[in-house]
Write a structure and sequence with these properties.
The chain starts with 8 loop residues before the first helix and ends in a 22-residue tail after the last helix. It is elongated. Helix 1 runs parallel beside helix 3 and helix 7 runs parallel beside helix 10. Strand 25 and strand 26 form a beta hairpin. The chain has three domains: 362 residues, TIM Barrel (Alpha-Beta Barrel), CATH 3.20.20; 91 residues, no CATH class; 182 residues, no CATH class. The protein is of the alpha/beta class. It has an eight-stranded parallel sheet. Strands 22-23-24-25-26-27 form a six-stranded antiparallel sheet, sandwiched between helices. It contains 23 helices and 28 strands. It binds iron/sulfur cluster (SF4) (2 copies). The site of one iron/sulfur cluster has 14 residues, from loops.
């Protein structure tokens, strides 16, 4: 299984600074898609006592595992980051491929792939990377506002109580030791960032993911432990099975038309039942309040279904995307109607730019997304969510989220009446006026009234009133139906290989890890070469062949950041999978040796000398370019070549006569000069740049 190798902070920084300055992008996100706020709109919300500049975030999943993913989410507008779920079993073999987001979204990828200790370090790296990007002056003004990290843990009490998970949580609450070590690693031109006030407390909130079959008593035990012993705010992620098999089947098959999706009855039988949840959540809420923490609920996890497709080998898979949006909204509607006890709710299920305004109108914080970010454009899709939400707010003449929740569905008056009826007091004239036509922001009107927490009470009431309206709209909307979600990316019947493709660029942004990259060649065309015949008397040329590498715009994969999830293959119009067929570059000799598997390259840079090692075409080769000379080894013979003429100058051993196939030499040279050149910056070549990256 492909192993993710976290990229060291100095390497991430060097790439970020070079790429932004030279190419106006950051980890392949165009500078124009960096979210810096929208004039006249305040998206701020409160989340577990923290102010978040937007309610938007990536859901725990492929977008929140590696530091560059987290930074990308933040750059694109996410301000509450639900980190990828960790658990005590941190050496699981996740089957590959594991992500299939063509029409509906499916995955079999449900747990962090890094070790626990690596995860804590990676999250600290992400926090420091964000802090440096913010404070370095690189991004200019206005700066993206900071992000809140929300831990995500699973899946049972025994695992969560284990010393390793306890240590992990403790490290997330106080990461000073990790931060100090990473700080010490900031050398050279990045040394100047050592004194930045990096956050030592990475997170004080946790979302609990209970896997299918987790009984109510176990959930209660876990939440109590997280609240009372670990001192965290806790969010309980609900499974869509809570809606009951009959209701899910009705919605999925009869209402939405996804008749080919088959449910897994044991999941419904063994999971938390709806009535149990109605009892459990108020109980846990009381426990949270008693220890000064907050309890919230998240709707929802993915839905376990039977695997009816051929992409995964597992028997079950987890459904997301459009149908989950409708199922989850119906579950939320039912839950809110029956609970009679307001608890904060966060959301994740088929969120996209088209429905984010409706979801925010239900007073859900944060609203998180995953499946949609796996579609073409990737992280660059996020700013559109906020642009659409701002558009809706502007249409209503509103500038703040609380005001928007009250007025989004015309329920401001009803919410005000309801809150004051509950207080046993008449509705103040100022609020009546505001409901008719808001002359000023709601918080100012509320501040002038002697009711503690009034604005939040009004927002809570309006969110509840808006919920059935949003649920009904979405359930009836054709965009969530089977017919509207059958289009899959087209394949054109050609096969990928090391060079050239139709260069559609899709595989770069769809990768959640930003593992695919572009490099440019300067000598695109058919590259003709001769082979050599070596005898003790001398070297002679014999006919070789032609390597067609005709495109200037070429693609490669950075294997250290690729977990072979298979996702880019789905969106590539050609066959074979970019992550398997394009040159796979590694970040260290060690990872190259471990995992090259017949398609692996590693480049090293020492002053003007550049070396590439390549395992491909059935052999393993090394090429060093130094001045006008090349040293090429195929494992049996090492040849010195004058690069301008191709003349063989020397070779060892000299004893036996032999023919040397120079095709691997030409291919390595092409890769080293193009991917290892300064045309584009990426992880495989970043250490080769000698120019200063930090001003001053
Ligand atoms: S390069 Fe492709 S297979 Fe690898 S992590 Fe990215 S999307 Fe998945
Ligand atoms: S490898 Fe596939 S997805 Fe990537 S640019 Fe080439 S054709 Fe497009």
């Amino acid at each position: 299984m492909a192993e993710l190798i976290p990229i060291p902070l100095p390497v991430l920084l060097k790439r970020a600074f070079l790429e932004y300055r030279r190419e106006a992008k950051l980890f392949d996100l165009p500078a124009a898609r960096i979210f810096r706020g929208i004039e006249g709109i305040d998206f701020a919300v409160e989340s577990n006592g923290h102010r978040a500049a937007t309610p938007l975030g990536p859901a725990a999943g492929p977008h929140t595992q590696l530091a560059q993913n987290i930074a990308l989410s933040w750059l694109a507008g996410a301000r509450i980051i639900e980190l990828k779920t960790v658990q005590v079993l941190d050496e699981l073999k996740i089957s590959r491929p594991c992500i299939d987001v063509t029409g509906v979204g499916y995955n079999v990828e449900w747990s962090q792939e890094l070790r626990l200790e690596q995860s804590a370090r990676e999250y600290a790296t992400a926090a420091m990377l964000i802090a440096i990007l913010q404070h370095s002056g690189l991004l200019g003004a206005p700066l993206p506002e900071p992000a809140i990290f929300d831990m995500s843990v699973g899946y049972n009490l025994e695992g969560l109580r284990s010393p390793r998970v306890r240590q992990w949580i403790a490290a997330m609450k106080d990461a000073s030791a990790i931060v100090d070590e990473l700080r010490g690693g900031l050398g050279g031109e990045f040394r100047r960032f050592r004194d930045l006030p990096f956050p030592a407390r990475l997170s004080d909130t946790v979302t609990l993911s209970t896997f299918h079959g987790c009984p109510a008593g176990e959930i209660e035990g876990i939440v109590t432990y997280l609240l009372e012993e670990m001192g965290l705010h806790v969010c309980v992620k609900m499974n869509p099975t809570l809606l009951g098999q009959a209701e899910v089947e009705h919605l999925l098959h009869d209402v939405l038309g996804y008749r080919e999706i088959q449910l897994s009855p044991p999941a419904f039988a063994n999971d938390l039942q709806f009535d149990e949840a109605l009892h459990l959540i108020p109980l846990l809420d009381r426990k949270a309040r008693a220890c000064g923490r907050q309890l919230s609920v998240k709707f929802s996890n993915t839905l376990v279904v039977r695997n009816h497709r051929s992409f995964f080998s597992d028997e079950l898979m987890y459904m997301s995307g459009a149908p989950l949006h409708v199922l989850t909204l119906n579950l939320l509607g039912k839950f809110r109607a029956r609970l009679g006890h307001p608890v904060p709710v966060s959301f994740s299920a088929g969120l996209d730019a088209n429905n984010v305004a409706s979801v925010v109108a239900m007073n859900l914080v944060p609203v998180t997304t995953c499946t949609d970010l796996l579609r073409p454009g990737g992280y660059a899709r996020l700013p559109r969510y906020l642009e659409r939400l701002a558009g809706r707010m502007r249409d209503l003449g509103l500038a703040r989220i609380p005001d928007y929740v009250l007025r989004a569905k015309g329920n401001a008056g009803a919410a005000i009446e309801q809150v004051f009826a509950g207080l046993g007091e008449p509705v103040p004239a100022s609020l009546r006026e505001w409901a008719a036509q808001p002359p000023q922001p709601l918080d100012r009107v509320c501040a002038a009234l002697p009711v503690p927490g009034l604005e939040q009470k009004l927002v809570d009431a309006a969110g509840l009133l808006n919920t059935p309206l949003v649920v009904a709209e979405a359930t009836a909307h054709p965009r969530y139906t089977y017919e509207r979600n059958q289009a899959v990316p087209r394949k054109i019947g050609s096969k990928l290989w090391l060079y050239d493709c139709i260069a559609c660029d899709k595989c770069v942004p769809v990768c959640p890890n930003d593992a695919n990259f572009v490099y440019e060649t300067t000598q695109a065309g058919d590259v003709a070469y001769d082979n050599v015949e070596l005898t003790p008397a001398g070297a002679g040329r014999i006919p070789g062949g032609v390597i067609p590498a005709r495109k200037a715009h070429q693609f490669a994969n950075y294997a250290d950041a690729c977990n072979e999830c298979g996702h880019c293959d789905n969106f590539c119009p050609e066959d074979g999978g970019p992550y398997l067929e394009k040159p796979r570059f590694f970040g260290s000799l060690e990872s190259w040796r471990r995992d090259a598997r017949g398609n692996g390259f590693y480049m090293e840079f020492e002053g003007g000398r550049r070396t590439i090692r390549g395992a491909f075409g059935g052999g393993s080769y090394v090429l060093t370019l130094d001045g006008g000379r090349a040293r090429f080894s195929d494992g049996a013979v090492e040849v010195e070549i004058e690069t301008a003429t191709g003349a063989v100058l020397d070779w060892t051993p000299r004893e036996a006569a032999r023919t040397v196939d120079l095709r691997p030499y030409v291919e390595l040279k092409l890769l080293l000069e193009a991917a290892g050149g300064a045309g584009r910056v990426h992880y495989a070549n970043v250490t080769g740049f000698e120019e200063a990256t930090v001003d001053g």
